């Protein structure tokens, strides 16, 4: 996967390092040359530039980049300007950092694909979410075990938990399932919220669009994701 991360503060730099360490190609961008120099040995590529300059940003390999992340947090105005510019340039997927509710509303109005809240979400969590195909979210219990939210693979639609044999085949426990629902926002748009279902039972029928909440060893979780 190829990523561009704009803003090498604590969150952006940490995420860029972790994604690089996992074998991804990462371009880390910041307007501060000291930050760029500090991370040039830890991130695939680092560039010092003003991300609000459309001509300069347009020269980046945006078409070849899978995900662009605006991690700027100290200046909300710059964050919004950069996010709007990237949206206009039609990047494949745009993730931006929000500092507060108003900031999040503005980013949603722009049409950002996903919002990051670094104050509540760690770079480790986002690195796993971005690298594991199908993972919606994750929570590490320790170095070996995690609870993850994973999109239901198509081949398991309309099957029961018992049919899939999560314990027997993958050594995983299904805790519950989540369903997405559309609600109206206070700015006239709609947004997706997650509706938590009851504790999963062997007879639970898995439906298209469901998100599985799984508990298990990281190796077994990876094995399940790759099998999908």
TrEMBL record:
PROSITE patterns: RCK_N. It comes from the Bacteria. Residues 1-116 form the RCK N-terminal domain. GO terms for biological process: potassium ion transport. This is Potassium transporter TrkA. It comes from Leeuwenhoekiella nanhaiensis.
């Amino acid at each position: 996967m190829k990523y561009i991360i704009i803003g090498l503060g604590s969150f952006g730099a940490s995420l860029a390092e972790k994604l690089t360490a996992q074998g991804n190609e990462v371009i880390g961008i910041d307007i501060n040359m000291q930050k760029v120099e500090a991370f040039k040995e830890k991130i695939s590529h680092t560039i010092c530039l003003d991300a609000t300059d459309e001509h300069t940003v347009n020269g980046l390999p945006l078409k070849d980049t899978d995900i662009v992340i605006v991690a700027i947090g100290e200046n909300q105005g710059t964050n919004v300007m950069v996010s709007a510019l990237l949206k206009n340039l039609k990047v494949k997927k745009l993730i931006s950092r929000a500092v507060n509710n108003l900031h999040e509303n503005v980013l949603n109005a722009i049409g950002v694909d996903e919002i990051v809240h670094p104050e509540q979400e760690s770079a480790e969590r986002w690195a796993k979410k971005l690298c594991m195909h199908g993972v919606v979210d994750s929570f590490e219990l320790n170095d070996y075990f995690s609870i993850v939210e994973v999109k239901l693979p198509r081949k398991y639609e309309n099957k029961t938990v018992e049919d899939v044999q999560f314990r027997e085949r993958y050594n995983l426990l299904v805790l519950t399932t989540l369903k997405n629902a559309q609600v109206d926002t206070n700015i006239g748009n709609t947004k997706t919220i997650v509706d938590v279902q009851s504790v999963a039972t062997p007879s639970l029928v898995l439906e298209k669009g469901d998100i599985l909440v799984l508990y298990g060893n990281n190796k077994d979780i990876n094995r399940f994701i790759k099998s999908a």
